[in-house]
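for the writeup, i need someone to sanity check this before i put it in the appendix. the sequnce is what the collaborator sent (i think, or maybe the updated version? ugh). structure was predicted straight from it, no edits. if anything looks off just tell me and ill rerun, i have time this weekend
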Amino acid sequence: MKFMKIGTKPDTFYTEEATRTVISDIPSDLTIRINNICYLLHKFPLVPTCGLLQRLCSDSEDSDIVIIDLHDIPGGEDAFELCAKFCYGITINLSAHNFVPAFCAAKFLRMTESIEKGNFVLKLEAFFNSCILEGWKDSIVTLQTTIKLPEWSENLGIIRRCIDSIVEKILTPPAKVSWSYTYTRPGYVKKQHQTVPKDWWTEDISDLDIDLFRCIITAVRSTYMLPPQLVGEALHVYACRWLPDTTKSRPPQSSGSLTEESMEKSRRILEFIVSMIPADRGSVSVGFLLRLLSIANYVGASPVTKTELIRRAGLQFEEATVGDMLLPSQLSSDQHYYDIDLVSAVLESYLVLWRRQNPASAENSHLLRSIRKIGKLIDSYLQVVARDVNMPISKLVYVADALPDSARGDHDGLYKAINIYLKEHPDLSKAEKKSLCRMLDCQKLSPEIRAHAVKNERLPLRTVVQVLFFEQESGSRATGHKPELISKARQTQATEEEGDKPQQEARRKNTVTESSESEHHEKMKSLEGKGVRGDIGEAESEKGKERRGEANSASKVDPKKIVQRRSRSDQGHDKGRER
């Protein structure tokens, strides 16, 4: 920061109650009243230097005590005192912090060259041109101080000239940047980097008021000289500087933490940032868009702003990570922690765009790779939110079921999410468990996952039986046979889905019972030789043993006994619930 020192005399102003005066042997003959402060001063040297005071004192005699009210002087009493001290020759220090009020007050008092040579306005203009506009931070600080005197600053050209100076420096190639700047990115050590980062300017201008910041960004964008990513980074830095952080915790139950005034300011900043995001895809990250959407829910942004954020996030959704999506719910009425509704809205927006591109005609194109990537992303996300003990099953099912069949090459990730949810929510009813597990396609489960599912007592019996049937079918395919039991099981499954739930359960049990004991034992024999462990890790270990020729040491499982044991367990559970 640069300073300019004017005057050589010591400061002799002092205060008595609400009166400011200067030490002098000559009695005061000029009284200046500004707001609640009264200045007892002298016509000489003030009147010869100030054109306004000359006009106001023109009708008075030299011996008269003149009283003048200057309540409308820009900058108030502080700015007037700087001008008064200049007239007395008292030392004053000018900087970017006090230039604007001093310049506006000097213009108001008409301290120009036409009144007296070497007057205050001339010296202030010299300081402005040679020091403030030549400096980077000086221009920013000066521009920020104009918010207290916007009309005067606009009329005197201070705002325009500061903006022009700042934009000119922003457009300077990084290799030619020679002034100091603020850059505090995590992990960045200035001494270890010889080159100037391309976004060196973003942090300093984030200190500006929203209206001034908008002027800077608008001017920069109008030149088309900077890539959209740099403009997006400037918006990101400004958002982190001024918007509330909704990524760390839930909002408080009461809205007293933020006043209505601060909420309105946050809404205004948010809506401006959203409107200024460049249309180019990738100008901002999808993680930033999701955080803005979370903030929009918190501050109550307009539906137009939320819709635009959802649309932009949907366009870049496949670039998201699970960490980007783990945002706390901003509705205090929600008992669950994670904002799954936000993810659901963005997923729906993505799917609308995806379906418009006719993915059926391009099975091997980038559309299939895109939807598969989203499928893995959603399943990984569900595995995290499933641990939320207050997460409603309906919301989990809605998000998992929103994906088309082509989104999942296998159902291993979906199975893991379901298993986690069943583990964290042991009090689910049988109907709720069925609604959760009906999304599983047992044919898309890997052998390791099927081995885990067969022994998983959290799953509904119907799901376990389906896994056993498909396990038998996979074994039968190797021999070229299609057991009659599998055909009956499929007929039973289709009948169950069409009928009522009580009738479905009865038909399923009857179908299993109708098979003779010997036939059932013969058809399921192919499963007995397969080792099934209680968890996925052990199943994977067993797979390794099979590859080494050690599969004969695996434990034996009788599918018929599993079905009978689970039937007795479910009947006991139902009796317990009736009690």
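The first strand starts at residue 4 and ends at 6. Confidence is low (pLDDT under 50) at residues 481-556, 575-579.
thx in advance!!
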